[in-house]
Amino acid sequence: xxxxxxxxxxxxxxxxxxxxxxxxxxxxxxxxxxxxxxxxxxxxxxxxxxxxxxxxxxxxxxxxxxxxxxxxxxxxxxxxxxxxxxxxxxxxxxxxxxxxxxxxxxxxxxxxxxxxxxxxxxxxxxxxxxxxxxxxxxxxxxxxxxxxxxxxxxxxxxxxxxxxxxxxxxxxxxxxxxxxxxxxxxxxxxxxxxxxxxxxxxxxxxxxxxxxxxxxxxxxxxxxxxxxxxxxxxxxxxxxxxxxxxxxxxxxxxxxxxxxxxxxxxxxxxxxxxxxxxxxxxxxxxxxxxxxxxxxxxxxxxxxxxxxxxxxxxxxxxxxxxxxxxxxxxxxxxxxxxxxxxxxxxxxxxxxxxxxxxxxxxxxxxxxxxxxxxxxxxxxxxxxxxxxxxxxxxxxxxxxxxxxxxxxxxxxxxxxxxxxxxxxxxxxx
Length: 429
Ligand code: URA
Known about the structure:
Layout: H1 3-11, H2 18-30, H3 35-48, H4 52-63, E1 78-82, H5 90-100, E2 105-109, H6 119-123, H7 135-145, E3 147-151, H8 158-168, H9 176-189, E4 194-201, H10 210-226, E5 230-237, H11 248-261, H12 266-281, H13 287-296, H14 299-310, H15 317-324, E6 330-335, E7 340-345, H16 347-359, E8 373-375, E9 383-384, E10 389-395, H17 398-411, E11 412-415, E12 424-428
Parallel strand pairs: 1-4, 2-3, 4-5
Antiparallel strand pairs: 5-12, 6-10, 7-9, 7-11, 8-10
Helix pairs in contact: 1-3, 2-4, 2-8, 3-8, 4-9, 5-12, 5-13, 5-14, 7-14, 9-10, 12-13, 16-17
The site of uracil (URA) has 9 residues, from helix 9.
């Protein structure tokens, strides 16, 4: 078989067979498929789509491009994954909170994708943290800390590792089939008993409408359950950043404030909602109360500290994170030019402003700057007087901050107070 044969089928609108997709996923993993061919394949799937059978076949082929893990642990193996948003560092709160509730969380996460942030890029802001440990170390940290957040590797879901990086820079993220196969190949390879998916909908999400989010949710729930993993979805709002901070070190800081300082708000609320959902699927009762208690009594923070140290980070991160996390040399406020309510926020534009500051990649080889981003971003409905800040910019250089200011102003609309939708929109199971 040749990569171009599979790509040509997509171009002609024909359905690649399960065998074609298996060959292509294996080729992504072992290098027989080039980046250019990966990009053409991704664009073909974006433009032509796959059948339901094709979506399931691609997911399983990508799962089987590497090793599928199994576990022998004294608790259920559970996890959460989101379809991607901005200011969303829920995984950093939820993984250790689930571990403190008795679940084991082998969380295989991603890097920034398009305008959205990536959990692994956030963890790279912690000095020494290894997001690509070998499998024995990954297993050891899961067993000892109860959670380990790492990336797809040469051993686990390697086809996604390649295709994810290609999609990030080729405008080929927005595809129900590719998102489903990318997320579930990693999750199914991790050998989970239970999974909750956070399907984002709104201006900062890949799915901008409820109908698109529903279709993706249905596809993922059906695919994962068919593959033997108990899975449900919460569709949640991404009409504005989840937390008021966007950027890698800034989002670790936001998660640490929830884990160690009792900060509440949408990040805390979403962590509790997703945690309760997956603990119920994993057979652990009273999930909501348990997650709240694990955050309040510091046991989630303690698990986070064990995970960070187990993966090479500082032993005192939880006690000393403020002095350990790096900070930007230029920090400046953006004052509102007029008074009014925050009427609309373009989450994608804010995410792209962070990418332009150096917090994400424009080509595969770009190095991420962990310190850049935005903090104290206003929320929908906030009432501002002229001159009050709409956000703070964290930049490496003054000229960057000036460009980011224009982008942030264009992304935030002042006007009438909008209706505020619920954070959790729908549940799909
Ligand atoms: N997260 C992933 O892992 N893959 C996607 O395609 C989108 C979000």
